[in-house]
Amino acid sequence: MARDKSWYFKQNPLTAALPLAERDLLERLAEERELRKREPLWMAGDAVRQVFLVRSGLLKTTRVSETGHELTLHLFQRNDLLGETDLILLGTEHRPHETHCESLEESTVFALPAEAFLKTMQHHTEISMAVMRLVAERRRSLERRIDSLLFKTAHARLAALFLDLQDRFGVRDGRGTILNMKLTHREMASLIGASRETVSFAILDLRRDGLILTEDKRVVLLDEERLVALART
């Protein structure tokens, strides 16, 4: 385990460039946590005490409206940092988590004390800039999805979602691109702000039209050009 943990911190893009002493300190402070499928990592209202690096698995952050509707904000896979927005706010004011985070499959994360990681950011500009880029990229992605939610049909939103997921989870094969993750129709609905039934009908239409295949809760993108055209409608 110690060797495996050390290897992880050496290859993770955020920690690999740190001086050895700083990296070793974070490694010693890191607590490994294993999560079952659907197990929360934090709940809305919990105090911000840690940030997390994903060792394996798939996690999501969500917001739930007063009426009980859930919207998935982001998905996280191996090497991703979670809790970075709350971490930055921790430097100026004490606020609880505003989101809910849970695993979509069995996952393992390394939990780091928030204050220790914040000090590392303050002492190393390259880490601070990397985290700020993450925040900007995730905000830009969320803004694109908000535009989609407001102005596009469910079919167009679903096509846009698949194209977005392709950049991070796509694996090429002879048929097209496999989204190497398992999402239920309910989870897709939470990502595009639609009902499960609407997503199910849209999936049937995209399959019938030859744009996608579905295999064991995985989606295969067959015709990227037509998906791009649909996402723009």
Please provide a brief summary of the model.
By secondary structure, the protein is an alpha+beta fold. The chain is 47% helix and 24% strand. It has nine helices and twelve strands.
Task: Break the fold down into its secondary structure elements and pairings.
Blueprint: H1 2-11, H2 20-29, E1 31-35, E2 40-42, E3 50-56, E4 59-64, E5 70-76, E6 81-82, H3 84-90, E7 100-103, E8 107-113, H4 114-123, H5 125-151, H6 154-169, E9 170-172, E10 177-179, H7 185-192, H8 196-208, E11 212-215, E12 218-221, H9 224-231
Antiparallel strand pairs: 1-8, 2-7, 3-6, 3-8, 4-5, 4-7, 9-10, 10-12, 11-12
Helix pairs in contact: 1-2, 4-5, 6-9, 7-8
Written description of the protein model:
With 233 residues, this protein is α+β, with helices and mostly antiparallel strands. The protein folds into two domains: 2-148, Sandwich (Jelly Rolls); 152-231, Winged helix-like DNA-binding domain superfamily/Winged helix DNA-binding domain (Arc Repressor Mutant, subunit A, Orthogonal Bundle), CATH 1.10.10.10. Helix content is 47%, strand content 24%. The protein contains nine helices and twelve strands. The strands form three sheets. The chain has a four-stranded antiparallel sheet with strand order 1-8-3-6. A four-stranded antiparallel sheet has the order 2-7-4-5. A hairpin with a 2-residue loop joins strand 11 and strand 12 (218-221). Helix 4 (114-123) packs across helix 5 (125-151), helix 6 crosses helix 9 (224-231) and helix 7 (185-192) crosses helix 8 (196-208). It is globular, with a radius of gyration of 19 Å. The chain starts with a helix and ends with a helix. The relative contact order is 0.13.
